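> run fold F-box domain-containing protein
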Amino acid sequence: MADFSGLALNSMIQMHNQDLNSNTKALKTRRKSLDLPDGANLKVSSKLLKILKDNQDELNNNITENTNDYNQNQFTANFQLEEHSSSFIMPSYNPQSTSSAVNLIEENKQFSNDTLLLNNYNNNNNKNNLSQINTESNLVKSLADEQQQIKKTQTMASALNKLTRNSQNKSFIKIKDINSLPEKLLLNIFSYLNHHEIIKCSLVCKFWRNLCQNPKLWRSLKLRPDFKDSIHVRNIDHFMYLLSHRFNTHLEYIELPIEFITSSFFHELANKCTNLKYLTLDFSAAMQLQDFNDLNAFPCNLKMMTICLSEVIFLEGFMRRIYSFLSSLEILHLIGTLETSNDPDETYETINIGKIKSYTPNLKVINLYGITFIDDNHIESIASGCIHLECMAFNFCSRYKGYSLKTLLDRCKKLKSLLLQNTAIESDAIKQVDWSQTILEELDLNSTDLDEQALQLMLNESPNLKYLSVAHCDGFTDQVFLYLIRNKKVTNLEALDISNTVNLSSEEVFDFLKNYGHQLKGFMYTGNVKITEQFWISSIKHMKNIKIVVMGTPLGWFKKIATRIHVDQIIESFAVNCPNLERLEIQWDPETIRFNDNSRKFIDHIRLKCSRLKSLVLSDGEYYEMVKSNFERAERHKIVRTTTSYHTSIVSLLKYYHQLLFN
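> ok
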């Protein structure tokens, strides 16, 4: 009986130990599976958190099972112990069984010790399991916290993950070469190339040739050979075949030279390219026009049309055939030649402005640029038919005097942008307008001859101005500027150009920047020889949101600038105070700028802190070479430029800037 019970107890203990060992190994395996990969900046998915919770529930179940097994084993051991104990109770004393009784007592003691050891072992094992569960619970909490932090990572990291993971099984793509990328991704890469580069890529291989012929890469076509990034077409018939078979409905923008302005080409364009929205017709180099009597088809869904006029070619015969197709037009550009003649009889009205307004009732933007025959009669004619106008530009229309402004502003109640740069506008015409009834937000009076009273009246009654350009205006004086500041007429101003305003002092400008510099996004102040670096150092700290700045005075030797400008402190001020700076132009010539070997440190500061900087224009010289080499070493090419090739302006801050772009 004793031998049987001892063997049974030992076998039960061994089985229990095996169960505990297997559970321990399972726990270790699960903990290894919960280890995070290196880097700890991968995104923890909700699936992993669910697995951790399932593991925690499974551990709790295992502990419950182990506890039940232990209780059952303990009950069995106690039962067998009672059997052993009952075997010691004998009715009478037998000397021969004394030795066997002693052996049974020793076995009983051994069994009790084994039972205590088993109890301690189970208790320790349960404590270890509980500690593991607590550890893994803390791990789950830490993973949840880490998941919330990882959600705030940069969008670039998520984009890279999308590029390198398969959308179906989320496995990494093994990229052997660029051709193994998805076609959609390759098309997106090729879309950043101009047409000349796309044509070169088509010669690489057959796969790239087929890729470069995708219509999505040919949504716009520039066919004027005299302009940058334009394509020169030698065989017009072959191009017309491509127009119908390759470009067709994907074509949205096209620029046509005089060779393509034919009835047959417009017929093909109207029938095949039904989604065409932007059309440019260049008549500037035309010596004679073809016969358009058979022109019966023309693109009818145009949103913008640009017509480059000729000096001597009359377009009425052509325009008469297309008037009926222009009802959807919203943006119209009429571009002149900018060539003036002293004899009025030599100026020809090559296009009938009065008829255009009758067929374009939906026009919102009209840009009349450099047209020498435009006068007040033409503007009155436009105002009578285009009541939805929001932007009107007469830049470089040298015969426009402004007496039609009253009619224009009375009829076009939606007009918000008025650009009058380099016009012959007169002060008396300005005084006739009730500017308080307008909603003008953008006003360009650059290089006009308005007097002080006209400017004060005009600007004082236009409190909603966000864009103001009065460069080269002698009538913009301290009195006008101070009057606007005191009456708080500049509270909405975001862009200001006061370059070469000879009657405006730097003290009034500094007071304006001190009070309203924080709201400016663009500021141009050049041509004042008395301005030094101290003015700019004190002013820049008030322009926290500035994006575009133009400063300095070119040709300092001609204007006899006595002092030299320490450019390092100006650069440092921009680096510290203007994190949103995008374009900066410093016009001082190399003889005026002062710098030393320590200037490299300040260049590093503006390069690192002004991360949005797209253009830094300097006079060609030693300082320009130093700045350029600094940016190129940081692989930021084409940022530093020279004033001989580039010019910075605040016109990009105009609300209708993109609609006013042409050529």
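Residues 122 and 627 are 75 Å apart (CA to CA).
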